[in-house]
Structures are given as structure tokens and as C-alpha cells.
Amino acid sequence: MKPRSFSFTTAHSVEHVIGLLQEHGDEAKIIAGGQSLVPTLNMRLSAPQLLIDISALDELRGISLDGDRLRIGALTRHVELQSNKLIAQHLPLIASAINHVAHVAIRNRGTIGGNLSLADPASELPACSLALGAELSIVGNKGKRIVKAGDYFKDLYETDLQANEILVAISFPLATTNTVHGFREFVRRRGDFASCGLVMNGERQDGKLTSLAPVFFAISNTPVLASKCAAKLLNKTLNDDLIEEALLELDRELPVIGDIHTSTEMKLHLAKHYLREILGEINV
Ligand SMILES: Cc1cc2nc3c(=O)[nH]c(=O)nc-3n(C[C@H](O)[C@H](O)[C@H](O)COP(=O)(O)OP(=O)(O)OC[C@H]3O[C@@H](n4cnc5c(N)ncnc54)[C@H](O)[C@@H]3O)c2cc1C
Q1: Is the CB of 29 under 6 A from ligand 1?
Q2: pLDDT tens digit string along 120-141?
Q3: Is the CB of 218 under 6 A from ligand 1?
């Protein structure tokens, strides 16, 4: 199918984007890598009158250290995350997850900003953002605001980002020598969206976990932080009994929704299996 006809503008500054969003309201849409938006236009699931191309905004690019955090510009493409040395050194969780995001052609154009703006519940990067305690920099007509990832994901494809705002950057705390992490996902074909996934980030000292953020994705409308399960595992020596007791919390706290490919029971089974595996892996 072909999209409805639309106007197309190349933005020359963030202020220009905000002005256009203000002027055109719901009729305007930002386009970054276009990897999700263009298919929805072609299928006429979305029919904006104006596309605002932000790809010329160099201020939205780049990966840089900012004190004890790593700042990633919204226009940073997935392929750049894969090859960047700062990511490999300071964000090992993202370094492992990014290889599982879509296919090469999509990673060559898709951006982290587009990915987090769309907030597909089966996406890897929203889950990583939540597990890592990311902060999102958002600019609108009232200026800039910072939103913690824990407050950002609201519901299915619904975030705290408003229609007249633009996501400009995401910042992440740096991994330390105590950081532990893990990644698992179940996909029908490599590069497809997951049917169930887990990203986990935490800190370990003297053989005990002092913080832990297991975040499940592709199981519900948003990524889900299993905080009650994590609490059971903190500041204790991990053993099989403790892990099995903690896994029981997942029955209570994961709002699992099955889909046509993977039942609720299967997703819950995978969620427990993956957490058990990762805990075993970090406990050696
Ligand atoms: C076949 C296929 C398989 C895929 N598999 C996966 C997968 O396994 N895992 C995964 O995570 N992703 C997957 N994706 C999605 C892809 O990786 C991109 O992350 C996604 O397309 C969004 O990035 P983009 O730059 O292309 O955004 P666009 O398509 O340009 O935009 C997406 C949405 O975000 C808005 N937007 C974009 N940038 C901003 C911004 N800076 N501020 C505010 N709003 C903005 C747009 O208005 C639009 O609504 C897949 C896509 C396809 C087509």
C-alpha cells in the first residue's frame, strides 16, 4: 500500500521542531530513522499531514561521557551503539542487547530516540533503560525536562512524551566493577521482536547482590521491573531455595498477557527460566 499524501519539512533546529509541532498539533509527526513510522504510513495506520524530518539535527547525535553518566543523543542509530567503545566499556547491558534489536538494515537507520518514543513493549532498549535507571531529556514549548525511565513508560505505545515534545537524549549511569548484568530473549527468528525477554542489571559486593533490576519485556503493555522478586534476593547468599522462592513472586507481580504466538503460561515459564539462568550465571 501507499501512504496518504503528506508535506515534508527538514527541521533545522530543535526550536524549529517545537514550533512546527505547536503549529500543526496532531497533524504533524517527527520522523527519525523511519523504520517504524514508514510502515505504519504505508499501511495507513497513521496519516499525518506533515512529517518533520529531524535527521539533520547534529545536536541530537553522539555518545559522550557526562560526569558519571553516558549521554546518548536521540538520533544515535542502533548500528552506532553496536560499534561504540564507550557503550562497550560503560554500558555492557546495552552492548549485549543491541545485537538482538531487529535486522542489519533496520539497525542501520533506526535510532534510539525513535525506539524509546515508540516504546514497543517487545523492544529491548526500553527494558534496558528501565533496568539501568536511564533519564530521558525531553524538550517542549516550556523548555527541557528530565523524566526517569521508571516514570516514562505508561501503557501500550504510550509514554510520558507529549505530542508537542521531542526526545533529545537519554543518559545512563556508568557500570562499575561491581556491576552484574544479563540478557535473554525468546524469538521465533533472530532479529524479530521478542515473545518474552529479560534484561537484568545489578551490583554485587562480597558475593551478595546489593541492588538488582530484573526487567521483563514482551510480556505485557510496558517493560516490567520485578521489584518484589528482586527484593527477595538482595543482601543474601544466593542458593537454589532462595532463587526458587524469589521466582514465586513473579507469579504475583508480572502482569503477563499472552499473544497469538506465545501463551500467558509460556511467557511466565520463560520469564522464570531466564531469571534462574542469569542468576546462576552471575553466581559462579
Ligand atoms: C521488521 C522490523 C523488525 C524490528 N525488530 C525490532 C526488534 O527486534 N527490537 C526493537 O527494539 N525494535 C525493532 N524494530 C524497530 C526499530 O528497531 C526502530 O527502533 C524503530 O523503528 C524506531 O526507530 P526510528 O528511528 O526508525 O523511528 P521512526 O520510525 O522514525 O519513528 C518512530 C516513532 O517515534 C517518533 N519519534 C522518532 N524520533 C523521535 C524523537 N526524537 N522525539 C520524539 N518522537 C520521535 C516518531 O514520530 C514515530 O512516532 C523493528 C522494526 C522493523 C520494521
Answers
A1: yes
A2: 999 999 999 999 999 999 999 9
A3: no
